[in-house]
Amino acid sequence: MSDDALQHIRDTVESVYHTDSRRVLATLIRLLGDFDLAEEALHDAFTAAVERWPRDGLPTNPRAWLVSTGRFKAIDNLRRRARFDAALVELIHQAESAISSQDEQELEDDRLRLIFTCCHPALASDAQLALTLREVCGLTTEEIARAFLATAPTIAKRIVRAKAKIRDARIPYEVPSLSDLPQRLDAVLQVIYLVFTEGYSASSGPALTRPDVSGEAIRLGRLLLGLLPEPEVMGLLALMLLHESRRAARSTPEGELVLLSDQNRSLWNRDQIAEGVALVRPALSSHPPGLYALQAAIAAVHAEAPDAAATDWIQIVGLYDALTQVAPSPVVELNRGVAVAMRDGPSAGLAVIDGILQRGDLADYHLAHSARADLCRRLGKFAEARASYERALSLARQEPARRFLEQRIRELGA
Amino acid sequence: MKYLCSVFFDEKNLEALSQQEYERLNEESLAYDDVLRKAGHFVAAQALQPVQAATTLRLRAGKVSITDGPFAETTEQIGGFLLIEARDLNEAIQLASRMPVLRLGGVEVRPIKEIPRGAVQNS
């Protein structure tokens, strides 16, 4: 074989690894019944591909070849290890008796099984995140550690323990039944959204050396939507895309925070907005619309407004009313209060926010105090505005937010 | 990414093995090296002679001083090492967890720090 042809096959192995290694892993976990065994088999299958494909030519179905090679390698490994460890005999039976289906639907379901297992409610939330990023997205332990500003041994331990829990608690590798689906899907969506917000709100820190965490969450959202086109999956993907579209406008080149109303909207990513907005309508089709669909709808109204003043605040308040019904929380009420201020004027908004604060909710939430300060400022109540900005500053933990508040206090003068 | 798996154990544990147990440990360890070699993970591995064969060097006031015995007097001493190539720390941990010698003591898995050659020459 010529050098060019050899290089072509090596490039093919490389690209098959990128596109298909997670699918192959998902199927191997089902066939072998064990995460570690499947990961080892995946590695062995690709090692064999590098060796054999240049010699024997490309298989017609590389993915099927990798699955069956991985499975046979695993059985070989287990047989050899069973000489020293009799407990492995059960695993050998499982690996040998599993039916290796070539049915496309079954293979796609394997990817869903993997996602639902990694996000199983029996696992702690931080373990779900780490496991999903490593097994479903294919990130390395070190990359996950960088993304979450943790050490690699901490993340490694979390992953080892999560796998042990899956094994010991015999967490089944399956797509949940229709009756369990809504609840289990919530857990998956929450993991994806947490991954997203980790990448989206962490504008400080050594951002340049971190992998694109939000991008990974969006990729996961797309994958899930392809496998399970439920309205809330559409809603989550739309919400992430619409938030992500504003990334370039959210901070100055110096890293200072820019509020939505002050953002340069020509910096917003129009392709992401178009994709997000198109998903919002089908996302709202369930009755009642879900948490993510409603938040995405709010983001879509902002995305389509030429500027803050021209925003359809009537519609935004209506969407917040609906959100309060579906998922009541003080933070949703606070956001609704800000929208009411835009619709009916600052004093109407202030009444809503003061109502929340008087109940004792959000007393320690810096954004509640800075929203209140802002409305007082607009009403000319400068002493009250200053007091609320100072309260917000005493509670804010992120550097850009603190600098923003200090700037506002300076602007109020002595 | 390369990881060093340093094996630590109390040498008494090794001495306590019967001849048959000792041979079996060696056989298993060599077999595991072959498994790692075939899978492309193996870089290097060696067992070490007992710690009484060690010599420790230190620089004192610009002069090399030599003492016999290990660098630090502890019950568990380094008894061997395995250098592997792995995708990430979890794969390295998984590979280290099957080292047969683990039953004598413990294994420390630690990533290798690559020192870029260009930077050294320029500094």
Question: What report would you give on this structure?
Answer:
The complex is a heterodimer of chains A (414) and B (123). Chain A has 414 residues and is an all-alpha fold. Chain A has a domain at 1-101. Chain A has helices spanning 3-32, 35-56, 62-82, 89-97, 104-118, 125-136, 141-147, 152-168, 181-201, 213-227, 231-244, 270-283, 291-304, 313-326, 330-344, 346-358, 366-378, 382-395, 399-411. Chain A starts with a helix and ends with a helix. With 123 residues, chain B is α+β, with helices and mostly antiparallel strands. Chain B has one domain (2-114): 2-Layer Sandwich (Alpha-Beta Plaits). Helix content of chain B is 32%, strand content 36%. Chain B has helices at 11-15, 19-38, 89-96, 117-122, and strands at 2-10, 42-47, 55-60, 63-68, 76-85, 105-111. Chain B has a 4-stranded antiparallel beta sheet. The longest helix of chain B has 20 residues, at 19-38. Chains A and B meet through helix 2, helix 3, helix 7 and helix 8 of A and helix 2 and helix 3 of B.
CATH structural fold name of chain B: Alpha-Beta Plaits
Main β-sheet description of chain B:
4 strands, antiparallel
| Secondary-structure content class of chain B | alpha+beta
Distance between the termini of chain A: 81 Å
Strand order across the largest sheet of chain B: 2-5-1-6
- Rg of chain A (C-alpha, Å): 26 Å
Number of strands of chain B: 6
